[in-house]
């Protein structure tokens, strides 16, 4: 697992990549073919950012209002989103892969900028599904306490013939029937996870696990642009309405301080820059 020092090194080493990643995320609220003017106004769920593209590429095209400089930044970002990380001094990608990891490029988890899918029955977590790990207690920064041997997530890939993967998480499913208030019934799929080929011993009975599916990246750049005051104001309004959620404050490694979390399923990252690193 990469150390904090390695993560901080990535901040400096990948500055250009992260800048264009923000560009692709901001631009990915899509509209590339045609214009929102050609759609029924009732269908404009994203206003002028709404796209008439309805197939699997809908999340991968830029908005129609980009100027030339923005369009170039989008194209560069899309190229690097699909670019592989490799082991130095291997050619054909960006140096810095490993020693263990989940995938070697952004697009393997966020296919076409969309969300990933769960493994089939009996398959291992990969290509956008991963398993977060923690043990009771909290880190010095107040976040979940990582597992002492495996860190905060199981990494299912390593460097061939040099570093083995940390292990595999195999998913199996059972179904259970639920009833809704109107009497309608539905079958829900319940997952269970079996860990195999663990390189550093058993996880231990106190280990808490949480499967996570890579989310769509559309609109992340827009979310980063929302002022913190606006987010806190929305949270206060939701509290008045009885909503139990609250803003999550997380550790900003560059700023060396606690700040508002915005990204990840539980808002556990403060910026796209730190999320990517």
General description of the model:
By secondary structure, this protein is α+β, with helices and mostly antiparallel strands. The protein is built from seven helices and eleven strands. The strands form five sheets. A three-stranded antiparallel β-sheet has the order 5-4-9, with no helix packed on it. Strands 1-2 form a two-stranded parallel ribbon. Helix 2 (15-27) packs across helix 3 (68-81). The two termini are 13 Å apart.
Précis, in short:
By secondary structure, the protein is an alpha+beta fold.
Radius of gyration: 21 Å
Alpha-carbon distance between the termini?
A: 13 Å
Strand content: 15-25%
Number of helices: 7
Q: What are the segments in which pLDDT stays under 50 over at least 5 consecutive residues? A: 1-34
Bulk shape: globular
Question: Care to count the β-strands?
Answer: 11
The main pleated sheet reads as: 3 strands, antiparallel
**Which structural class best describes the helix and strand composition?**
alpha+beta
Give me the strand/helix succession. HHHEEEHEEEEEEHHEEH
């Amino acid at each position: 697992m990469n150390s904090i020092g390695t993560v901080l090194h990535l901040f400096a080493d990948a500055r250009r990549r992260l800048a264009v990643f923000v560009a692709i995320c901001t631009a990915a609220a899509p509209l590339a073919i045609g214009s929102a003017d050609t759609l029924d106004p009732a269908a404009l769920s994203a206003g002028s950012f709404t796209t008439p593209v309805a197939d699997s590429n809908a999340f991968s095209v830029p908005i129609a209002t980009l100027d030339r400089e923005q369009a170039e930044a989008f194209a560069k970002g899309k190229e690097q989103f699909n670019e592989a990380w490799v082991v130095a001094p291997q050619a054909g990608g960006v140096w810095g892969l490993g020693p263990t990891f989940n995938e070697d490029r952004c697009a393997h988890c966020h296919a076409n900028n969309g969300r990933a899918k769960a493994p089939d029955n009996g398959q291992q977590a990969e290509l956008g599904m991963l398993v977060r790990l923690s043990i009771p207690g909290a880190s010095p920064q107040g976040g979940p306490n990582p597992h002492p041997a495996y860190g905060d997530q199981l990494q299912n890939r390593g460097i061939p013939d040099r570093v083995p993967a940390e292990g595999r998480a195999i998913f199996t499913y059972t179904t259970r029937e639920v009833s809704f208030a109107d009497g309608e019934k539905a079958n829900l799929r319940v997952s269970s996870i079996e860990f195999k080929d663990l390189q550093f011993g058993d996880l231990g009975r106190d280990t808490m696990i949480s499967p996570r599916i890579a989310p769509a990246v559309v609109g992340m750049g827009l979310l980063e642009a929302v002022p913190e005051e606006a987010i806190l104001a929305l949270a206060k309004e939701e509290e008045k309405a009885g909503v139990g959620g609250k803003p999550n404050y997380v550790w900003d490694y560059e700023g060396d301080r606690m700040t508002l979390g915005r990204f990840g399923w539980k808002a556990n990252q403060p910026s796209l820059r730190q999320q990517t690193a």
